[in-house]
Every structure is written in structure tokens, then in C-alpha cells.
Amino acid sequence: MPAAAVKLYRYTNDEGNLVIDYQVPPEHVKKGYEVLNDKGVVTKVVPRELTEEEQKEADAQARLEAEALAEQRRLQEWDESLLLRYSTIEDIEAAQERALMDLRIRVSILKSNKHSLKQKVENYQAQAADLERMGKKVDVERLQAIEDLQAEIAATDRAIADRNVEIDEVNAAFQSDIDRFTVLLEMVEFRRTMMAQKRAEEQEKRVDPRR
């Protein structure tokens, strides 16, 4: 049966000298050490523990790298989605117009409803004014109807405002798509140009081997 593999440790002592031993004193473990096999070959390196400030810097750097990687993935997914959905910028503009058309129709319907509600309010208010001129008391039902209609008008105004915000967001999103797609087209064109130049250079070399 083969003997158990010998494990040695190399560390720096308090005097700054390298020491090889069968174990690392507890007070030196945090300073880092190396694990060696019986032939003196390093098989593992245990780094020293970081100071609190160094750990903060390392964590910050790790966060930055993670954010950069996430942004790279986001752009890659965005690019793949754009190239899958569109062939030209005109395709994006057509999709934008379709999305905006739906929202504009909804705004138009809401404005038409608001106009109808305002007319009803004006009719009830005119009736109430006629009753007051005749010295009669305006009935509670009529007043409540006016109040309910005004609440509906306010809700419609909020819905119109929300749809207008959506229109702005859709415009911004499609403009971002257009800007990014433009960059992609420029990159594709640049690659085509470089490949054409490379092919031309290779052709020249075949024609004139001295080049």
C-alpha cells in the first residue's frame, strides 16, 4: 500500500524569511501560504486575508465587473432581438407607427367620452339653473348626477394623461431601438468593408507574390 502523500507548507515568518514546514502556525495563516508536495512543487496557493479597506475595494471592483457583464448581456440580447424583428430602420418606424396609432385611437375615444360627459354635466347644470330661476330647489338626484359625472371626467382626464405618458415612452423606446439598430448597421458595414479590403489584398498578393 503506498504511503500517504506528504504535504508541506511554505510561509513567511516574522523575520521575512521563507519557511517550509509540515504545518503553518496559526498566527501566520492569515498572511497566506503555499502547499507543496513531497517533490517541492507548489500545488496550491492560499492568499493572505485582505484588510477591511482592501476587501471593500475588491467588493466594489467585483460589483463593477458584474454590472459591466450584465450590461454586455443586455446589449447582446437587445441586438439579437432587433436583428430578429427588423431588417431596416423603416421596419422599426412602421412598428412604432402601429403602436402609436393604437394609443392615439384610445386617446381619441377618451376625449370623445369626456366631451359627452361634459355635455351631460352642462345639461344637468342648465336644468338646475332653470329650477333655481323658478324658485324651486334642485333635487338631490340631479346634484348627485352632476357630481358623479364630474368624477368621471376627472378619471377620464387621468386616463388621457396616462395614455400620453405611454405615447412618450413608446416614442422613447422606439427611438432607442432606432439608435441601436443604426449602430448595428454601421458595425455590419464596417465589417463588410474590412473583409472586402482583406479579399482585395489577398487577390493582389496572388497576382503579384512579391507584395
Automatic annotation (TrEMBL):
<protein>
    <recommendedName>
        <fullName>DUF4124 domain-containing protein</fullName>
    </recommendedName>
</protein>
<feature type="coiled-coil region">
    <location>
        <begin position="107"/>
        <end position="134"/>
    </location>
</feature>
<keyword id="KW-0175">Coiled coil</keyword>
